[in-house]
Design brief:
The structure holds two protein chains of two kinds. Chain A is α/β, with parallel strands linked by helices. In chain A, 35% of the residues lie in helices and 24% in strands. Chain A has one domain (6-248): 3-Layer(aba) Sandwich (Rossmann fold), CATH 3.40.50. Chain A has helices at residues 49-56, 80-86, 103-110, 117-121, 129-138, 154-167, 184-198, 210-216, 234-239, 241-248, and strands at 11-20, 23-33, 38-42, 64-69, 73-74, 88-91, 172-176, 202-206, 219-224, 227-232. In chain A, helix 3 (103-110) packs parallel to helix 6 and helix 5 crosses helix 6. The longest helix of chain A has 15 residues, at 184-198. Classes of the chains: A alpha/beta, B mainly alpha.
Chain lengths: 250, 380
C-alpha cells in the first residue's frame, strides 16, 4: 500500500505500540487521516480503539512509534492541554459535560481562546456571545441555554459535548461512540450533525453501531488486537473474510 | 463593565458582606470602649477577643471553602498554613518584648536564654519589623502551599491521596515544632506578648482594634473569593471539580489553576492565623494538630460547601457551640463534633445554606402553583 508523505496529512500514526502490564493494547498501529477526511473506526471490544484515542490526545504515552499532527508536530512529547490547544478535540464515550454549569457556560468554557489562569481571572464576559449562539443553534440547544447541563437528557448531553468540541475549533475531532444509548431519531440527527462538522475539519469516529456507520457513509478502518485489520468502504470491509472471522468466528 | 478589569467587580453579596463586617468592626469596639462598664450594653473585653477569634476561624473556613468547595481539593492541612501565619506574627510579638523578658536579655526571647543560646538564629532576623512579619505571614504559607501543590498537582495526586498528603504535612510540622532545637519555643510555643505596633496587647483599645482588623480582613477575604469564583477562573475551577479530564482535554492546564487557588487559599489561612495569635495571646505546636484542620473542614460542611457565606456561618456557629459546650461539658465536645459531622453529611449534605436555599425554592414554587390556577377558575 502506498503511503502519502506525512507532510500533507492531518494525523499520521506509524508503528505505534502500547503495552499495559504485558498486554499489547496497540501493536504496531499505523493510520493516516487526511485534512478534511471523516473516518469511522470499528472493531471488537479490546481492539485498542480507546487506547488509540488516548495516545493521540496525550493521555497515554506510546512505548514506540511516531504520531504526527499537521505533518510535523510530534504529539508524543506533549500533554493533554497542549494537544488540545493545538487543535485536537476529543469526545468521551460517556457524555462528559460540566453538570453544575449552564449549557451556555459549558460552551463558553470550551471556546477557543487563552487558557491560562490569569487570562481567565481577568476575562470579560460578553465578547463571544455571537459565537456561542451560533454553536447552540448548530447543536439544537438554543432554547435550553440557561438550563444546568446536569438536567439535560442523555442525547442532549452528547450534543452539548459535541458543541463544546466545535467551540474549541479543532482541526481534528476524535469522537468515541457518539450514539451509544441514543434513540433512533437522535442517532440519525447525530449522523447529520457529524457530517455537517466534517465539512470543515477531519473527524475520526469510533463506533459499534453499524447502521450509524452506514449512515455516515465514509471510509472504514477495522482494528483488531491493536493493529489495522482491514480498511475501505463499509461494504468492502464487511466482505473481507478476516473481518468476518474476527466478528463472527469466535 | 468598562474599566473594571483590574478592580474587582463588586457584586451585591460581596458588598452586603463587606457592609455587615464593617458595621461589626465599628459596633463591637463602640460597645466595648464607648459604653461604661456598668451598663448592660457594655461588651466585656474577653467577649471582644472571643468574637475576634471566631472571625479568624471564619477566614480560615473561607480559605478551605475556596479550594474544597470550588476546586474539589479536600485539604486536611489548612491548619498548618494558619499556624505558620500565626508563628510569623508570634515571632514579631516575641521580638517586641525586647529586654522585658523574665531573663531580661536585650534581644533573645526567654526560651532561647533558657536553652543557653548565645545569639538569635538567622531565621529570626527581620522579625523585629512589622512589615517583615506581615510579608512572612503571606510568604511562608504561600511558599509551602506552592511547593506541595506543585509536586502534588503536577503528579496528578487527587482525592483522598491529596487529603492524606496534606494531613501528613501538618502532622510533620507538628512534630518539628515540638522540638526545642527548631528555635520556635518547643512545646510551650511563643507567648507572654507585650506590645503590638507599640500598643499594649492587653489594652481594651488594642483588643478592639484587633477585632476590627479581623472583621476587615474577613470582608476583604470574602470579596476576593467572590471575585475569584464569579470570574471565568471560578467557572474553570468548578469545571475541574466536576470533570477534571474534560477540562484538560479542553486545553486548560489543570495543575496551574489548582496551584493558583491553593496558594491564594494558604495565604488567606496565614492571615487568619496572624490575626488569631495576638487575640489569644499564644501560639504553640498544638495549632498544627491534624484535628484542627479536620475541624475547619467540618465548619465548611456544616455551613454549606461551595457557598462561601456558608463557611463563615458554619465557622461562627460551630465555634459558638464549642464555647458553650466546652464550658458546660468539656469531655463530650469531640463526640458532639463527630456526631455533628455525621448528621450534616447524612441529613444536610448541602449544609445550612443549602437548607435555606431549598426552603426558598420550595416556597417560590408553592407561590407559583397558587397563582396559576386562578385564571382557570375565573375563565368560564
Amino acid at each position: 500500500m502506498s503511503r502519502p508523505d506525512p507532510q500533507h496529512t492531518q494525523l499520521y500514526l506509524d508503528g505505534v505500540s502500547v503495552s499495559f502490564d504485558g498486554f499489547r493494547a496497540l501493536n504496531n498501529l499505523s493510520l493516516i487521516i487526511m485534512p478534511g477526511e471523516m473516518r469511522a473506526i470499528i472493531g471488537p471490544n479490546g481492539a485498542g480503539k480507546t487506547t488509540m484515542m488516548d495516545v493521540i490526545t496525550g493521555k497515554t504515552r506510546p512505548d514506540r512509534g511516531t504520531i504526527l499532527f499537521d505533518g510535523d508536530t510530534d504529539l508524543t512529547q506533549m500533554d493533554e492541554a497542549g494537544i488540545a490547544t493545538l487543535g485536537i478535540g476529543r469526545k468521551f464515550q460517556k457524555p462528559t459535560v460540566f453538570e453544575s454549569h449552564t449549557v451556555w457556560d459549558n460552551i463558553d468554557l470550551a471556546l477557543a481562546g487563552k487558557r491560562g489562569p490569569f487570562a481567565s481571572l481577568f476575562h470579560r464576559a460578553g465578547a463571544d456571545d455571537d459565537r456561542i449562539l451560533a454553536i447552540l443553534e448548530t447543536i439544537r440547544l438554543s432554547a435550553r441555554r440557561h438550563v444546568l447541563a446536569g438536567s439535560l437528557s442523555h442525547g442532549q448531553k452528547q450534543w452539548l459535548e459535541i458543541g463544546m468540541l466545535l467551540a474549541q475549533e479543532p482541526k481534528l475531532l476524535l469522537v468515541d461512540e457518539p450514539v451509544a444509548g441514543m434513540t433512533d431519531a437522535e442517532t440519525a440527527e447525530t449522523a447529520r450533525l457529524l457530517r455537517e462538522i466534517a465539512q470543515t475539519r477531519s473527524v475520526v469516529v469510533v463506533e459499534h453501531d453499524m447502521t450509524f456507520v452506514r449512515d455516515l457513509d465514509v471510509k472504514v478502518t477495522v482494528l483488531h488486537e491493536g493493529s489495522v485489520l482491514s480498511d475501505g468502504s463499509l461494504d468492502h470491509v464487511s466482505a473481507d473474510p478476516r473481518v468476518i472471522e474476527v466478528y463472527l468466528g469466535r | 463593565m468598562q474599566g473594571g478589569i483590574l478592580l474587582p467587580r463588586l457584586d451585591r453579596a460581596g458588598l452586603a458582606f463587606g457592609a455587615v463586617a464593617l458595621g461589626l468592626a465599628i459596633l463591637i469596639p463602640v460597645l466595648n470602649l464607648g459604653i461604661p462598664a456598668d451598663s448592660p450594653f457594655h461588651m466585656p473585653p474577653h467577649v471582644v477577643a472571643l468574637m475576634g477569634k471566631y472571625l479568624c476561624y471564619a477566614l480560615l473556613a473561607l480559605s478551605v471553602d475556596l479550594v474544597w468547595g470550588y476546586c474539589g481539593i479536600l485539604s486536611l492541612g489548612h491548619g498548618a498554613f494558619f499556624a505558620l501565619g500565626g508563628y510569623a506574627m508570634g515571632m514579631y510579638l516575641m521580638r517586641q518584648i525586647g529586654p522585658r523578658g523574665m531573663y531580661g536579655h536585650p534581644t533573645l526571647p526567654d526560651f532561647m536564654v533558657f536553652l543557653n543560646w548565645q545569639e538569635l538564629p538567622w531565621y529570626w532576623l527581620g522579625f523585629d519589623h512589622f512589615w517583615f512579619a506581615v510579608l512572612m505571614v503571606l510568604l511562608v504559607p504561600g511558599l509551602l502551599a506552592g511547593l506541595l501543590g506543585w509536586l502534588a498537582f503536577r503528579s496528578r495526586v487527587t482525592g483522598v491521596y491529596l487529603s492524606i498528603i496534606t494531613q501528613a504535612m501538618t502532622f510533620a510540622l507538628l512534630l518539628a515544632f515540638f522540638r526545642n532545637d527548631m528555635g520556635f519555643g518547643g512545646n510551650n510555643g511563643l507567648t507572654d506578648f507585650k506590645d503590638i505596633l507599640g500598643a499594649s496587647i492587653q489594652a481594651d483599645g488594642t483588643r478592639s482594634a484587633l477585632f476590627a482588623a479581623s472583621a476587615i480582613a474577613l470582608a476583604l477575604g470574602f470579596i476576593l473569593c467572590r471575585w475569584i469564583v464569579r470570574s471565568k477562573l471560578g467557572r474553570v475551577l468548578v469545571a475541574i471539580r466536576d470533570a477534571e479530564s474534560r477540562t484538560r482535554f479542553l486545553g486548560y492546564r489543570v495543575e496551574q489553576y489548582k496551584l493558583l487557588v491553593f496558594v491564594t487559599s494558604a495565604c488567606m489561612a496565614g492571615v487568619a492565623g496572624a490575626l488569631y495569635v495576638p487575640q489569644v495571646g499564644i501560639i504553640n505546636p498544638g495549632e498544627f494538630s491534624p484535628a484542627n484542620s479536620i475541624e475547619a473542614v467540618i465548619w465548611v460542611a456544616v455551613g454549606g460547601r461551595g457557598t462561601l457565606i456558608g463557611s463563615v456561618i458554619g465557622a461562627v456557629l460551630v465555634n459558638f457551640g464549642k464555647t458553650l459546650l466546652t464550658n458546660a461539658l468539656p469531655e463530650i465536645w469531640l463526640f458532639a463534633l463527630g456526631g455533628l459531622f455525621i448528621a450534616v453529611t447524612l441529613f444536610l449534605p448541602r449544609g445550612i445554606v443549602g437548607l435555606w436555599t431549598d426552603y426558598w425554592a420550595k416556597r417560590r414554587e408553592k407561590q407559583a402553583a397558587s397563582i396559576t390556577p386562578h385564571p382557570v377558575t375565573e375563565g368560564p
